[in-house]
User: What shape does this take?
Amino acid sequence: MDQATSSELPIFAEHDNDPRALAEEILKSLTYRVGKDASVATPYDWLAASIKVVRDRIIERWIASTKEAYTQQRKRVYYLSMEFLIGRLMRDAFSNLGLMENMREALKILDVEIDVIAGLEPDAALGNGGLGRLAACFMESMASVDLPAHGYGIRYVHGLFRQEIQDGWQVELPETWLDHGNPWEFERRERSVEIGFGGTVESITSKDGRLERHVWRPQERVLAVAYDTPVVGWRGKRVNTLRLWSAMAVDPILLAAFNAGDHIGALREANQAASLTRVLYPADSHQAGQELRLRQEYFFTAASLQDIVQRHLSQYGDLMTLPDKAAIHLNDTHPAVAIAELMRLLMDVYGIDFDTAWGLTKRTFAYTNHTLLPEALESWPVPVFERLLPRHMQIVYAINAQVLLEARSRQIFDDEQIRRISLIHEDGDRRVRMGNLAFAGSHSINGVSGLHTDLMKQTVFSDLNRLYPGRINNKTNGITPRRWLMQCNPGLTALAREAIGDRFLDDTDALKELNRFASDPAFRDRFAAVKRANKERLAELVDERLSLRIDPSALFDVQIKRIHEYKRQLLNIIEAVALYDQIRSHPEKDWLPRVKFLAGKAAPSYHNAKLIIKLANDVARVINRDPSVRGLLKLVFIPNYSVSVAEIMVPAADLSEQISTAGMEASGTGNMKFALNGAITIGTLDGANVEISECVGEDNIVIFGLKAHEVEETRRKGYEPRAIIESSPELGQALHAISSGVFSPDDPHRYKALVDGLYETDWFMVAADFDSFADAQRRVDDIWRNAPDWHAKAIRNTANVGWFSSDRTIREYDRDIWHAGL
Assistant: This one.
């Protein structure tokens, strides 16, 4: 939101938040803003009316926050992210303003249940997994710790996709979250900017032949239209802005073509522009998809950079002060083209020389790396990049020349190291390396867990780290405790408040005071009762969506995250098959009732990930219908995983599955959410699991498998998964059952290639870690049998993970990177 022009703001007195006053205001909102009488209002109408009543109170804080940042000339943080998985906003906003209970009472006066209408609010389809949810937590925390900030992204119409499961297969359907409008957003048509693609670059020379500047003349232009959503901090102290860009054609209809009868051609530009903001992550397995993704990334970063520069100039008038007043943060490589775009603006539009522009750019940008997977460090074919962004290609080459000359001058790098440092990958197809561009153009590069940061220095950025020592630093991820404890688990929040008071509501480290209750039988019983209620709520969801009855007294074993081979849902499913065999083969043993939950989406073009979803559903179909199992084991795949689904599953989990191949998960944030809500982690020493283990203590977490250095050493020595499989009867039997069609009688060979891959290469070390994982699960059984011990460990998890608050993370970012004055 930009500086308000109104001189007076409406002030809501305390008595305006009285339930009866709020009820009257909701009725007025329903009548005059929604246009409905109470007698015919639908639940959606009540939802819109209620949101708008609270939104009015947000707006005055929003304007005040913006004015304060402007008048005090505070440095602003600009957070650029391809995803903002914000979920539903109603509870977030109502709770952070302290209005939830008053609004509940107000609506009750009107015979409306707040929980009913809150359930109608759609999840904003603006992200996919941890990257987008982290960005959402960071936006809320920046407001909560009083840091002036803007988030910038894309206003996706259909998001990633809505996942349905048909005959066990993932089916992708368009998300329709905007069908009923979005009462939280404000269109800012006056903040629209033009974005160009393609075309030519003209060199302008002086009369004496000196090059003065370059002029990019794009062939295509689209309009980026701003939509602002207020982001309310805890206790409403600050309200920041999430600005999302929607695309539209500069000429919405070519009237001459339309009148000539070419009705389709007349709308071609409008349709092409609209495609930019339709879908998150269009499949990039073909050139058209790659091109659209690059267009999306440039579209939103270019619009954001123009917006940032314009705001800075309107307030300060001089771009030489940009790094002092603006901290631009790149959330992964998706917005890395912003570095070339800022250079273009500084040089071509504002006439600043290359060296000065490069210095300003590096001081302004910072970059968070979220992955060590080479395929996730984006790179673009040079021909595609040059055709779409010809001026930016020139700038990338110029930056690369500067970087490589600097590397050569150090005389510590051989030719192979120089090639790795280069912004252009020269082996085979020439590609622009966006990770290297982000690294070279930023003054700070951070990892998101201690292990990830160390590995980043040793692997993907080892040479750049030698060239620019000191740039890499660690900022372990965090989660907002408002959404991931107070809102999603009100029972546990109330129990904690009664036991230790309210200080943890503002400082989650205060949860440590719960440690003394871990040995209190009465508190353990009440803690268990809260968990039981949360499990009953999840059981109702499963019954409603899948018509499957599950027992809340069983151990709820949960793995929810993006479906990817390195996250090893396959390992979890194979262990379920092995356990199924053991239960049937040894019915005399004291088996514990267990429900394994999985949820997550697979990228539409990721064949093996989609096959793993099908396998999960095929295995579930067989196990759940087999009477010989006697209900001791069930497998549940919940479709269309979302923030709202997570808010039900996380508080209900007894066991948190964090089982990625060590060294491959940058951090994880689901692991933090589960632990905060009293689940015990079973996991590898990967990502933030390392720090969770340190915080909760080795006795309160179940660790298994190879460590990161052991994974690397095993691969280096020559990994032979076949020998491991043949030496493990449980693993061999489970894989034979899967491969031979026991779970796919309609297509016995469906999983043969998937299983053959484990025998032949097994890059993600499923076989190497299987026996250790299975043993760890039996250790979990032993702990579960001793209920007081289990609950004590669960309490210690909640008590000792307050450090993983995103408030702490944001304060560290500001202290070490942004310097915005917290």
